[in-house]
Every structure is written in structure tokens, then in C-alpha cells.
Amino acid sequence: MPRGQYYPEELREAARQLRREGYSLNEISAKLGPPKNTLTLWVRGIELTPEQSQRLHEREVEANGRNRALAMMAHRAARLARIDEVHKQAEAMLQTADDLTFTNHIAAAMLYLAEGAKAEAAFAFGNSNPHIIRYWMYLLRSSFTLDESKFRIQVMCRADQDEAELRQYWMELTGIPRCIKSHVDARTQGKATKRLNYKGVCLIHYYDVSIRRYLDALAHGLMERSLGSTPQLTSDSSLAPVSCTGVTASLNGSVRTD
């Protein structure tokens, strides 16, 4: 009993003729039906002219470009679908957080735990992302009774940036009209800022430790519930450094901007 599929001689000759005319194996397979491995045997010994080889090469390059573009589109569509899915999951979780006051207090405590700085008479929060700074100010103003006169902002920037322009930017964004002396990172002298729309780091000082003590206790209480142990609270006399995007600073005046 013969193995494989039988193809008539007329079909074989048609394949050979297409090859002589410069068609690729993929093109012949698409026209006649047999797979490439079968066609390879049929057209063995048929040499293409330099012009035909060049044509096939150009067609291959063109096809590869189309395939890459299609693959990129498919990858992007899949990535956007994954992003959309996690956004839906996050939105569903947010729908369960119906107590806005509770949510804001937790958010403020966690932000402060990650990005806050402590000192004996004040505490601070720093970041280079304007949206995070705006959110921090919203959390403070919506959650606590504040004395706006106790706010100060401090700008930390690179040597090629305009300090006055940055101070004005952060003052308008935060609604805080008072500033303390900016810090320019001397290590950046002669080095151009590459990050687009980089506004330096805004450090927000509030000269009252009562809110800081509350946020500290809330954050550590949450950790205690989760970890089952009692973490040591930071004492008022400590000067714990703030670590945030592009900056390491402490309220004793030691500042570094990256």
C-alpha cells in the first residue's frame, strides 16, 4: 500500500513551471496546494536567475516586515487587554471601599510610611510626581484640621534647572505660598537633564508633629495586625531620612537629589 498522498504528474509539472518563473515555495504551495516539503523534492535542480532570487528576497523582506507589524499589533492589543482587566479588578475593589474617610487615612499613613521624613518639630513628604504630591495634599486637607500657615515647600533640583520657575510651579500646584531654601545638586553641574518635563522634587514640610504621630501609629498598627508583632515606633527625636523618587533627604539639612 503506497504511503503518503498521490499527486498527478500534471500538478508536479505545474509546480516546476512556476518555480522556473521565479515563484517561491510558499507562493507555489498557496496556488497548487502541496506542502513546501513536497514541493522541495519536485523542484530540486531548478536554479533561479539572479533577478528572480532578488525578487524573492525583496518579497521575503516585505513579508517579514508585515509579519513584525502584525505581531506588534497583536502584542499591543494583548497588553492593552491585560491592562484593562487589572483596571477593572482595581475598580471593583474600589467599589468596596465605601468609607472615604477610612480609605483616605489608610492611604495617607501608607504614603507617609514609604516617603515620609520625621523630625522633632515637623514632618515632610517628598516626591517628583505632581500627581502624587497633589494626592498627598488632598489626603491631608480632606482628613485633618490643618493650619495652612505651618506648610512650607522645598524644591530640590538639578543644576541646569530654573529654581524660581520650579518654586512657582510647585507653589501653584500645592497651594502653599511659602518656601524654604531650595537645594541644587552640585553633582549635576554640567550635566543636562534628560527626563522630559522633570520638575525636580517637591518636599512638603508641615511644622506640627501631631498628625505625624497619628499617621505613624496608624501605619505601624496596620503592620502589627498583618505581621503579628509590634514594630518599634519612631521617637520624636529621630531624624529618619525620606526616600522618594529622585531624592534622599532629612530635615536636618542633609539633602541629595538624583
Summarize the structure.
With 258 residues, this protein is of the alpha+beta class.
Arrangement of strands in the largest sheet = 1-2-5-3-4
Query: Strand pairing plus helix content: what structural class?
Result: alpha+beta
How is the main sheet built?
Answer: 5 strands, mixed
Helical coverage, percent range: 40-55%
| Count of all domains | 2
Percent of residues in β-strands: 5-15%
What's the number of helices? Answer: 8
Specify Rg, calculated over alpha carbons: 33 Å
Distance between the termini: 77 Å
Low-confidence stretches: 234-258
* Succession of helices and strands: HHHHHEEHEHEEHEEE
Layout of helices and strands, plus pairs?
Layout: H1 9-20, H2 25-32, H3 36-42, H4 50-96, H5 100-115, E1 116-118, E2 123-127, H6 130-143, E3 151-158, H7 163-174, E4 183-185, E5 201-206, H8 209-227, E6 242-244, E7 247-249, E8 255-257
Parallel strand pairs: 3-4
Antiparallel strand pairs: 1-2, 2-5, 3-5, 6-7, 7-8
Q: How would you sum up this structure, described in words?
A:
With 258 residues, the chain is of the alpha+beta class. The protein has 2 domains: 9-47; 100-257, no CATH class. 52% of the residues lie in helices and 13% in strands. The protein has helices spanning 9-20, 25-32, 36-42, 50-96, 100-115, 130-143, 163-174, 209-227; strands spanning 116-118, 123-127, 151-158, 183-185, 201-206, 242-244, 247-249, 255-257. The strands form 2 sheets. It has a 5-stranded mixed β-sheet with strand order 1-2-5-3-4. The chain has a 3-stranded antiparallel β-sheet with strand order 6-7-8, with no helix packed on it. The termini are far apart. 20% of the residues are buried.
